[in-house]
Design a protein that fits this description.
This protein has four helices and twelve strands, in the order H-E-E-E-E-E-H-E-H-E-E-E-E-E-E-H. It has helices spanning about 5-15, 60-65, 80-85, 160-165; strands spanning about 20, 20-25, 30-35, 40-45, 50-55, 70-75, 100, 105-110, 115-125, 130-140, 145-150, 155. The radius of gyration is 17 Å and the shape is globular. The termini are far apart. It binds flavin mononucleotide (FMN). Keywords: Oxidoreductase.
Length: about 170
């Protein structure tokens, strides 16, 4: 069997660009937690389910483990600073962050491409991460374009030139 080291895996997974989210929640004392996450994905449309995975070594691990709810804040292309702030260890992650309180008081970050308020339905520990499944209970989409992350860099999303052509030319059969 081929020996797969973490660095090599991360490099290869960089060939699959993703959006960038900040997951937010509250602990039992009402303290807000947030972390940058690109392992977010859709699971099911009916019922509306999504997933993401969290490293067991995250400082906010117990907060998300014990929380009933979390919010998926899908960052927009002008929110790199927010991505960096929430991926850096700090006791003051919400400094200079504009947000409002969603259901259960969980922070909803302003000016995102989209926000999904979720109830956690299950947690599945696997390897050094835990996979959370959330049920979407409220959602909104803005006009902002999403921030993209791939090959270890921040990217912007733009329409593919061939996608523009597909509007005027029939698809090849
Ligand atoms: C673009 C990007 C995506 C990330 N995705 C994840 C992820 O899916 N899961 C995870 O556990 N950490 C992820 N991280 C790392 C966390 O954001 C980082 O470890 C953060 O400091 C964790 O916060 P905490 O220790 O306060 O909980 C990502 C970082 C970046 C920059």
């Amino acid at each position: 069997m081929q020996q797969i080291d973490g660095l090599a895996l991360r490099k290869v997974l960089g060939a699959f660009p993703t959006g960038v989210t900040v997951m937010t929640t509250l602990d039992a004392t009402g303290r807000a937690f947030g972390m940058t996450v690109n392992s977010f994905s859709s699971v099911s449309l009916n019922p509306p389910l999504i997933l993401w995975s969290q490293s067991l070594s995250s400082r906010s691990y117990t907060a998300f483990r014990d929380a009933e709810r979390f919010v998926v804040n899908i960052l927009s292309e002008h929110q790199i600073r927010i991505s960096k702030q929430f991926s850096t260890a700090s006791d003051d992650k919400f400094r200079n962050i504009t947000f409002r309180s969603g259901l259960g008081g969980v922070p909803i970050i302003s000016s995102c491409a989209a926000n999904l308020e979720c109830v956690k339905v299950s947690a599945h520990p696997e390897g050094d991460h835990v996979v959370y499944i959330g049920r979407v209970i409220r959602l909104e989409r803005s006009e902002h374009r999403p921030l993209v992350f791939g090959d270890g860099r921040y990217l912007v999303a733009r329409a593919h030139e061939h996608d523009e052509l597909s509007a005027v030319l029939p698809l090849e059969s």
